[in-house]
Every structure is written in C-alpha cells, then in structure tokens.
Amino acid sequence: MFTERTSIGLDVHARSVAAAAIDGVTGEVSRTRLTPSYEHIMDWITQMPGPVAVAYEAGPTGFGLCRALTNAGVRCEVVAPSKLQRPAGDRVKTDSRDALHLARLLRLDEVTSVSIPSVNQEAARDLVRAREDCRGDLMRARHRLSKLLLRHGIVYHAGAAWTDAHDRWLRAQAAPQLLTPATRMAFDSDYEHVLMLQGRRRALDSAIEDMAADSEFTAVVRRVSCLRGVGTLTAFALAVELGDWNRFNGNTIGAFVGLVPAEFSSGSTRAQGPITKTGNTHVRRLLVEAAWHHRSKYQARAVLRSRWELAPAAARARGHEGNLRLHNRWVGFLARRKRSTVANVAIARELAGWCWSLAVMED
C-alpha cells in the first residue's frame, strides 16, 4: 500500500526530465522541468513534503537514477511502460502530462515495477547482449557474402556452409571466379567483415565462459546446463537476463517470456491465438533454439556428461528427468502429427519451467 505523503512522477529523457508531484494531504500539484543531473533531481525532491515516493518508466536511460534515489533513502519504482493504464479517450500526450499520470498511478498503487538488476548483473547482461548483437551482425554479413556469390552463379555444394572446408573454398575457388575488379573488391570487403566478426564473437565467447566459470551466476549456470540444448553460453544468458528466478514459478515464467498463447474468451467461448511474444526476446529465442535439441533420441553423450560433472547430484537427476520428459513430449507431438514449429514452441515453454526448477534449486 502507498504510505508516503508525496507521490512524484518523472518523465525521464536524455536531456530533460519532466517532474510532477502530488501532495496526498493538501492535494496540491507541483510541476517543473529538470536537468538529467541526479543532484538536481534530488534537490527538487527534497523540497517536497516527505516522505516521498518516485516512479519513472523503464527506458534507455537505465537504472542509475533509481539506484541514486534508493541510496538516498527515497523509494523509487521503475515502471514497465507496457503495463501502464491509460484513459481510452486521452488524445493529448506531453511530458508534463505523462509525469502527472505516473504520479497519480503511483498514488493509487497501480504501477507494475520491473526488477532492478545489480551493477554486476547489468554488466554481465551488457556482455551477453553484445554477443547477441555480434551474432546477428555475423549472420547478416554471411548472407551478404553468399548472396553476392549467388548473383554470379557461384554456389557451394560440398557440404555445410561456414565450415573450414567452406572457408578454403571461398578463398581458393569462389574468389577467382569473380572476373571484374569491382566485384572482387566487394567480395574482399564482405569476406574481411565476416572474418572480423568471427574473431569478435570468439573473444566475447571466451569472456562469457570465463565469467560463467567464476561469478555469482556460476551455480545457476552449472545447474541449468544439465538440460540438453542449454550450454554454458545459453545458461549464462538465461541467468543474467532473468536475474531473480524466485519471482517466477513453473507456470509464470513461460508467460513472462511470451511463450504462452494469446487468449480471447468471453462467457462460454474460449479462443486461443498465437503466442504473445511479450517479455524478453533474447530469452525467448534461446529457449526456442534449445528446444529443438530435445527432438532427437535422448542419450547422455560426452558433452552433456562433462557439464553434469560440474553440477550437484540433485541437479543431475533433475536434468536427466527433464531431458526424458521433454523428448517424450516431442515423440507425442510427432505421433499426433503436430507441426514441428508449433510443437517446438510448446517444448520451449515447458523447457522454461525446467530451467526455473533447476535455477531455484539449492546446492
């Protein structure tokens, strides 16, 4: 329940902050425009009748303001923008009105706060997201190179692409077939870009593996890695993106990452649509990719056993149980002739629950 006397809403931007405060005793509304300086914001807040509570929307400015206010003894809520209630007929949007709207919702305790990561967790999350950006850049660079060759009728037929053999073919056979100097220059530029991104990805992978081996996330990473398809990189990304696993349970974690179907029900009619795709896109992609690994026959091979050796016995048993369950679910879907993409999303939703059960397990 809201117990502070003054509720303050901040509409935070890179170069300005619109602020609005509501005095719960007198009903007086105060508005002003501030600079993004934490000291300037704090000086204005201290002028309000105390105690005070502050709310602002989560966004690109991060959590520095929230940490500064919390350290100063001010309760601060970082609000999920997608969960804000707005009047249906409101057609005027300004920074000042947004700040006042936040203050009113905070006063009514009608805001949904996001989880605030620690400084170390945010740093690890930045590293994981840098690796994800590098992966996407590498994929696009490879597509550009392969489509350049395709436009000139040069296609690789000797196996999987982007292997050592494919790399030798690119340098020894594909490049000499480009006849004009301009086209050869374009090939060299795209090929050099691919090599540069591959080196950057290897460096980021090495840094993530080192951090996963010795950090506050190590225990969670080792337990979650007992599941098939969840290697060190995936487990570390799940650990730092989700943060506090205890705020979920086996059912709600699937909804948090947008893997549950949308629903339109009224009275006796119930209609379900495609998955909601809300929440963390990166986590959802990792779970969907990991779910494909459970389609093949389950065998605890050397790579999986090497990860098991680092985990507690209870986590190994739990991971083995989850691997059996998820593969049997795949078999059931295939027997019912379910589309593989639909079945895989269902497996990913259940895989999220198994990851949660391992993450919250005590060593």
Automatic annotation (TrEMBL):
Signal sequence coordinates: none
Limits of the Transposase IS110-like N-terminal domain: 8-151
GO MF term set: DNA binding; transposase activity
Residue stretches making up the Transposase IS116/IS110/IS902 C-terminal domain: 224-295
GO biological process, one term: DNA transposition
This protein's name: IS110 family transposase
Species this chain originates from: Mycolicibacterium fluoranthenivorans
